[in-house]
Amino acid sequence: MRRKTASQEHISEKATEEQKARKKLAEMNLLDDFLFSTMAAYPEIGERFVKILLKIIFGRDFRHLSVTAQKVYYGADTNLHGARLDVYLEPEIEENSDERVTVYNMEPDQGGDAADKRELPRRMRFYHAKIAVKSLNAGADYEELKNVVIIMIMPYDPFGLKRMVYTVKSMCVEAPEMPYEDGASTLFLYTKGTEGVPNEMLKQLLYYMEHTTDENAINEELLKIQEMVRAVKKDPEVTAGYMLRHLRMMEQLNRIRKEGRAEGKAEGKAEGKAEGKAEGELYNKISLICKKLKKGKGLEQIAEELEEEIPVIELIYNKAKTFAPDYDPEAVFEQIRKDI
């Protein structure tokens, strides 16, 4: 039997990765950043999708919305941190309307480790600041500043009180009952929350978002969303986009690993397997990420400090988190090798 050529092996590996990507997309739920953002940006579906979400969350209809998926607010210069908002929603209010414009940012968050929870309030503070500074034109009165509502949907309890809804607003510590309306609020929606459940519709929605299947689309609104999900997942362009994203991540990790091995051998450090890996760029990245995780740092902070692209860092970061609290770089390295 003839051995496969390098080209044939590459084609075979690529086909395997494509199959993995298709399977992941088919099984993906709405808490996944890719599917959620794709749904919101999808022509003829995005606006209907987010209107249903907002209707269930707030219990009222939203007529006019301008939907922007993956809106990025850059820092004032390259040394300042920017913010990427998954789904940015801005109602189109008529000029003579008395209603104050409210900007909504909605996104799923699948973090949940100690570092993610610890940095969450400050991350929300940063999001509010970035949106607010962009929503007031130069010379405008502060009265024209738009309200901002940030909605985080998460499969973990951000504050440990088992609540389905946590609504956070500014208040006076000495007199909590005193009105203090600065127009900023944050909703944390915990999919498994059992306390303070406002209504059955929201409970069903949050469960469905974590378990996005036909069986869990148990009311009229969820059936509409599920029909949209099926349409988006079946779209060849969406499939191709996700496969390309997946393959790029795998290829980048493979390239890093191969370059790392070559570097280790070139420096004469390949006497033992562990030493060879330690000299590799991939192993070094894993080691750095593990060290930063031990210090309680979150994904965005690590990516910024390492000056790396989020997708590659996120993949390693998520793998490393499964080895908490030790964050053993050797174990993480071996697991990633198996995956690629």
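(the above was protein one; protein two follows)
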Amino acid sequence: MADLLPSTAVAPLLPASYQGLDETTASYAHAGLHGAANTQRAYQSDLKQVITWLGTKHPGTPLLPMTPAVLADYAASLAESGKKLSTIHRRVAAINKAHELAGLLPPKDAMLAVVLKGINRKVGKTQRQAKAFTVARLKKTVASIDTSTLQGLRDRALLLIGFSGAFRRSELVALDLEHFELRDGALVVTLPRSKTNQEGNREEKALFYSPSPLTCPIRAFEAWRDKLNRTTGPVFVRLVGASKHSQPKLSERRLAGAAVNKLVQRYLDDTVNSRKPGDRSNRITAHSLRASFVTEAVRTGQNTKSIMNQTKHKSTAMVERYQRNNDVIADNAAQNIGL
């Protein structure tokens, strides 16, 4: 397993056909083949799941090379078990990447293509989406947070920055204080990398002052930054040492993505404590910060270009997918056609 997507030493990371490259060229080839560190970790985890499945469903069958029939069987089993379409796509990509790094051709034939197309159609129709919330709901929630505590200051900053910056949770937890700069009346956030920017091209988002100090993302950031009492390092960190008799203390360990998800649900998902185990339908998640920004921006008449300038979506189709304006009464052209 560790030999499929290793993470140290340049030379052994490349297929045999690359071994003749000098060290400098090999380092670039390695970056091109392996991708971002987060992607490598996701693929490692995915391949462990594949190996476990093979041991159960196809005992004695090696991971490499994998036949198209086995991959089709695996993809279908993921679909039947209720996995999201994005998860299925990533598992297939991990298998293909393992073949590529081993100098093998990925499994591919007409039958596999048909099965994957069918999965896209059937699973795609029932794809779960993060539920959106309104600005009014966010403002009410944020105004109720106890900002006399470290947790309250941190959580208020995360919610306001996450929403107004249309951030993904992976972007939020990766933010460093060095990424923030006050410029021309706005707080500009520079993203070294993101889900759609794996090449490290410079991307910027802007946060703006709000009339109310209680719901202003810039003031919330500054209040939290003052408590951090440093100028570099992670912005959203874990709090440790809490007990009945003492308040939590700051650490320098970043919040995990899962912790951001729980934080958003704790404040904004009224059903989080009443849902049945395994029920993930139409729920508030960390991704709701981003989806809600798009939805509210569309609802208030913002043009697509300005929305994409903040979300960094690469296509208008993705903006359409993210916005949740589907209230049959509130979001219906029939009420404004002039009758």
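Reviewer note on protein two: Residues 6-12 have pLDDT under 50 and may be disordered.
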